[in-house]
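Q: Protein A?
A:
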Amino acid sequence: RFLQSLLDENDQAFVDVIYSEVFENAAELMVDPFGNYLCQKLLEKCSDQQRVEFIQQVSYSLVSISLNIHGTRAVQKLIDCVDHPHQIEMIAGALGANVVPLIKDLNGNHVIQRCLQKFGADNSQFIFDAVARHLVDVATHRHGCCVLQRCIDHANIQQRNLL
């Protein structure tokens, strides 16, 4: 909480110091019951370049982090904080091969729904493609049917036709 309060002071020097100390253990902290809050606050306050480095650091673990009860919140915050196409592409690339397992998970489905909400139709094509390939499986699953509804809500005409 002390480190989170330092981040709230909007002093880039504090952000840089905390970022450098957290960076190597970012994936572990994202799934920690307390560390995930620090990661969320850090993602809000860090620079775009630091955010790119952060995504690179956790990209190989992003799916397992998303499946975790604490990690899902940190990943959703990461998604909320990205605002450059390259950052979106990095996240989509890290999650892309595991869209259906994420959709069918109690925690992971929220990450996919946040991607749909934040990334928009064009940058969420990887989700629409996976759902279309596994439509019956997704539609008949208790979490999948909710994600399918969000897909329909956020889809463009071509994506709706695909589904």
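Q: Protein B?
A:
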Amino acid sequence: MHPRLRINEAQLQALAVKAKASPARSGWVKKKPGSDGVGTSRWQKRWLVLYQNILYYFESEASQRPQGVILVELCDCRQLETRSGDAPTDSHLFVVGIQGAAQRQYQFATAMADDCHLWVTAIREASTEHQLQQLVRLKDQCDRLSSQLDARTSEVVRLSKECADQEIELSRIHIQLRAGSLQSPVKRDVARRQTLEYSYPLPVIIKLQNRWRRNRWRRKFRTVVDEFVVSDHAEAGRERNRLIWKLVANEEEYVDQLNMICDLFLKPMRMAAESSYPKVDMKKVTTVFSNIEQISAIHELFLSGLHQQVKKWPAMRIGWLLDVVFPMFSIYHEFIRNSTLSTAMVRDLYKVDAQGRQADIVRVLHNFSPLSTFEYLNELLAKPTQQLSHYLKHIQALLQVTSSYHVDRPHLEQALTTLNEVLTTIEGEASERERITRTLKVEGTIQRGCMELLSPKQTMVRNGLLTHQRTYNSAGGSLMRKEKKQRERHCY
């Protein structure tokens, strides 16, 4: 019996951590246990990660230690057309393993056919042999492009030489023409005819005249371009492009912040709330984060559209995109409505008890990432409440540098109107909510004061009946007269 191969588990563990950080592909699959495995034969749900030519499968997405490792080098990966009897229903199977009767075949199942096809393609392309073939193919393509570049360079050199020869010829002809202009008209006509008939054919002269006209128009065009570059219109266009690039950069930063909220806080809290022993209430998680995932999806769509427009530089038109996306920002109503309650709940989650201990969910977040602090979460949750105001200032700046006949201006004006309506609605709801809150606070203060005042434990300095006398003016016909009313009040 041959001795078992030794594998450095610490190295595999370090590679597994790196694979989860930057995988070539990852996702949930169902894995069929091996024939020699221990326990049930049910298909197990595993988090599958492909990194370089190594395939890891974990028990869950948050697990740090892999359940198993598969080297895909020299392995065959194919999609199974037929499904075995114990396979999950409505699933698509693919198998990974070395061909041979004595070799173990790893079977996986996905819920969608597209995912299955993508996994098979990614595993096949992860082998070193496939990478070498792709390298050879790219090298051949590079050699072909280099040969084409050399041919074009030779052609440019040849044409430049021809142009220089033609310029010399043109100068010589001009000198001869100026010398011939001093002769008599008869001799000049004879010399011109002799020159045309014997020295310079007509096609050559026509070609030289066309070249001279092209040079003249080229100089005129260069003058027009130089004047346009220093004009106010060109400066406004450059400022407009700069504002659009700034908008794209700000949007990229904002999308990264939304993804940080989802990855560092929302997903770990949701997993802790859905576990067998929940460490936080799901209602609190829903209240704190509200509809942040829908907001993140809308902004990722918006950022993708901005990238598509930036590729069309210098003709970047983002007005129609803003006109389409800004009505979707009404989704911010729910998030901003819950912002005050969300801040209070976050403060309650991170509160330290009398013994100086933090809540279980805080320890879970710290174990997941050191960045999951109370200050960082508050800072991230405040970003969406300020984003719409940033958009408003940016669109106003864009309108200032966009001319009235620009094709993008009507869309920008419509987008600005839509954003103002959304902001007005949100501010109206916020002011109404603040008014109701203040009213309820005043009513509560009055009620507590009345209860304290009417309590039998209170000692009154003096109480009793007093007469309240009021004087007011009343109109009787054309004369004004004063009237008095008296009413008894019980005072304390």
